[in-house]
Amino acid sequence: MSAAGAAAGAPRLRSLDGLRGAAALVVVVHHALLLFPALAGVYYAGRRAEVLPPFADALAYSPLHLVWAGTESVYLFFVLSGLVLTLPVLARPGFDWLAYYPRRLVRLYGPVVAAVLLGALTILLVPRSNDDLFGTWVVRRPNAYTLEALVDDLTLVAGTSGRISPLWSLQWEVLFSLLLPVYLLLLVPARRLDGWRAAALVALCAVGAATSTQTLFYLPIFALGVLTALNWRTLEDRAQRWTAGRRWAWPLVLVVAVLLTTARWNLTGLGVDPPLASRLAFLALPGVWLLVVAAAFCPALRALCETAFLQWAGRVSFSLYLVHEPILLAARFLTAPASPWLAIALGVPVAVVVAVLFERLVESRFHRLAQRVGRAVKARRRVAQEA
């Protein structure tokens, strides 16, 4: 991400690495808290399914939901993907699309294949159960891999099996990666209309949320990242001008970002009918977009995202995202008679260690392989042209 940003003249993308790391940690917290049946009931019911202790109630139905807003963190990943994949295209005249496709697919599918095999191994070694005592989220995880489920998880584009639930987002990552030239063809012309087009993208997400049409909901989120890349310098200039001399400006932006990102849960807590609140989930899109902008241009948040810890989290974020959930579930089944806190205490450190190893031994190697594949395609193309 940082290299892509440098290539496009956007040197502050290092802070977005840290933001991505923070979002990955939020996803881990999200799945850890879903081990508690009461919070899993909140997540699936979207309402006060039962009386919660005050702090748990605040975690569920207030802006504090941000600390375990796993779904909204995935929206942030989608915006970042649109931004990061577009910047190198804009920076290089005559961008080599023939090299891009194999490079991108190796980069995505290599770690996914390894993660699926690891997840299948955890299911084999630690059998799963559908006992109601585990709560809704755990019970909804299938107990075994079938051949059909394995094919779904290894190919992604037709949907995933739910054995490793974070894989659902990779379906949309792959589709967006394949459709990136189409996004650019649609969004690069008529740049003066970008404000209207951003509003139209949010409107499409609203329609997708209202009609439960996943394509209409998810694919426009990537487009907002593409528009952000197209207007990067303009956004930076406007952010500097608008916040100059206004100490309250960035705090206000961050408050609005958090309120929008958690809007569905805040509204539920205020008594809004849960089905209506779920249809307002699209409000998280402008919220996570504001977080991306703030991480790039707000000095305080940028400094936080550039700390060593969040930079490390950003480096292992993809690996952590892929491997953590089967490990947490295995820890819960191994400690079934005890509180979910014990599963969290055991599972989270193991997941972090496995993620670090996975990043070094799997993800980084496929990243290097993807670069070699891209260079090989370019070299063959040059040879063919010279011949």
From TrEMBL:
Keywords: Membrane, Transmembrane, Transmembrane helix. InterPro entries: Acyl_transf_3_dom, Acyltransferase_3. It comes from the Bacteria. Pfam families: Acyl_transf_3. The chain crosses the membrane at residues 22-46, 66-87, 108-126, 170-188, 195-211, 217-235, 247-267, 279-304, 316-335, 341-362. Residues 14-359 form the Acyltransferase domain. This is Peptidoglycan/LPS O-acetylase OafA/YrhL. It comes from Microlunatus capsulatus.
